[in-house]
Amino acid sequence: MSYQGRNVNDGEPPPAIIAAAERDYRSMCASVADAMLGARRVAAERGSEVEAFAEVYFELSRINPRVAGAMGAAAIVQLAMRP
């Protein structure tokens, strides 16, 4: 996988990450769906996409980094899988 033109993955994810993905992916997708509803409410209240992003980013920064990262990964995969 590349990120901003850099190769950030030199191989397959370690077994512990694969096991966590198999265990957590569906619940992270549900968390993303819940977060989307909250983000829509925030965006409607704020009226600015940047202000909504700032608030969502702030809230995610306050939770467990592993959970925030898993939610971000789930959201990216969900977006990537859309036609």
Quick summary:
The protein is mainly alpha-helical and 83 residues long.
What is this structure's SSE topology?
Layout: E1 2-3, E2 6-7, H1 15-46, H2 49-61, H3 65-81
Antiparallel strand pairs: 1-2
Notable characteristics:
83 residues, mainly alpha, two-stranded antiparallel ribbon, 3 helices, elongated
Shape: elongated
Would you tell me the structural class of the helices and strands? mainly alpha
Residue runs with pLDDT of under 50 for 5 or more positions: none
Count of discrete domains: 1
- Rg: 15 Å
Written description of the protein model:
- The protein has 83 residues and is mainly alpha-helical.
- The protein has one domain.
- It is 75% helix and 5% strand.
- It is built from three helices and two strands, in the order ββααα.
- The chain has a two-stranded antiparallel sheet with strand order 1-2.
- Helix 1 packs across helix 2 (49-61).
- It is elongated and about 40 Å long.
